[in-house]
Specification:
Blueprint (H helix, E strand, L loop, with lengths): L2 E4 L8 E4 L5 E4 L6 H15 L24 H7 L5 E5 L11 H7 L2 E6 L17 H11 L7 E4 L22 E5 L2 H5 L13 E6 L2 E5 L5 H10 L9 E3 L12 H6 L3 E4 L10 H4 L5 E3 H4 L2 E4 L2 H5 L3
């Protein structure tokens, strides 16, 4: 039976899908260098005079402070015996979505890597110890197809290909994984290309429990494209991983009116940055990583049970 794992990472995203085929998809990673991140957080706290980590609020369900106890996704994969990933997808090249990719490749491995073709300048790592430059270097080697044991697939919205959204050459079933964004126009739009979030993958996983949507940090132009080109998703979303970890990011929330998700999981982000009312006033159920920690769903059944 298929399973979806939303890993408790802070702040960032990491999702694993165990498909019925036995193949495993990884979407983004954060906290793969967890010890480095914890050291950085401690140093930042001392520098600013904080006595503890930020306490985040919830949706009335209690604050269990799970964001203060994040998981290392590499340890998680190994502990659960998931083995080498069939595919790994970085939704877009922000460091909080590929924090630990070098260790993931070395200690777990993945056969395939998806690339939208979006590019950005290297971050300034001088004096910035939260992230590892090794991760950026591996990402660059991947997109330039210099990693011998990984096949790079350059795929964007609408592409249909074996193992993901199309049966393979032997007629074996695909993994029901579809790309909703970005489009070629989004990647080439001079008005959007200064915002790497508009190049973020928006992924759809079709499960027996309904549609699961994993949008990375997709912003307004991305959602406008998804809404325009995927009419069948209107009011037809069982699960949404909140874009940009649930941060308001000066954005439109038309995507919530369109998807009407039965359950949204908000990642670890300080409460002051999350506009919970956007979900409340639409009578949409939310769950925060700060409440739930790790979130696992078998074909979405746990998500659906919460609604009854």
């Amino acid at each position: 039976m298929a399973k979806v794992h939303i890993i408790n990472v802070s702040p960032g995203d990491c999702t694993l899908i165990e498909h019925n085929s036995g193949r495993i998809t990884g979407i983004d990673i954060c906290g793969g260098n967890l010890e480095v991140r914890q050291k950085a957080a401690a140093m930042e706290a001392r520098a600013t005079g904080l006595l503890g980590l930020l306490k985040e609020g919830g949706n009335g369900g209690g604050n269990y402070r799970m964001c203060e106890r994040p998981s290392n996704p590499i340890n998680y994969i190994q502990t659960h015996g998931l083995g080498k990933l069939f595919r790994f997808i970085v939704t877009h090249p922000d460091m909080d979505h590929m924090d630990g990719i070098a260790k993931l490749h070395e200690e777990v491995g993945f056969h395939n890597f998806w690339d939208t073709g979006a590019r950005r300048k290297a971050p300034d790592f001088d004096g910035f110890f939260r992230y590892s430059e090794d991760d950026w270097k591996l990402y660059q080697n991947l997109v330039n197809q210099r990693v011998e044991d990984v096949k790079v697939l350059k795929k964007i919205a609408g592409d249909r290909f074996p193992y993901a959204s199309k049966e393979d050459e032997d007629g074996k079933s695909a993994d029901a994984l579809y790309i909703l964004a970005p489009s070629k126009d989004l990647l080439c739009d001079p008005n959007e290309n200064d915002d790497i979030n508009e190049a973020s993958y928006v992924l759809q996983y079709k499960s027996t429990a309904g549609n699961f949507i994993f949008p990375g940090d997709a912003h307004d132009a991305s959602w406008e494209y998804v809404i325009e080109t995927n009419k069948s998703l209107k009011g037809n979303c069982s699960f949404l991983l909140a874009p940009h970890h649930g941060r308001h990011s000066d954005r439109s929330y038309d995507f919530l009116d369109f998807l009407q998700p039965k359950l949204t999981v908000l990642g670890c982000s300080p409460s002051k940055y999350i506009d919970y009312n956007q979900w409340y006033r639409r009578d949409l159920e939310i769950l925060t990583s700060n409440q739930a920690g790790e979130y696992r769903s078998r074909n979405g059944r746990r998500a659906l049970r919460r609604l009854h």
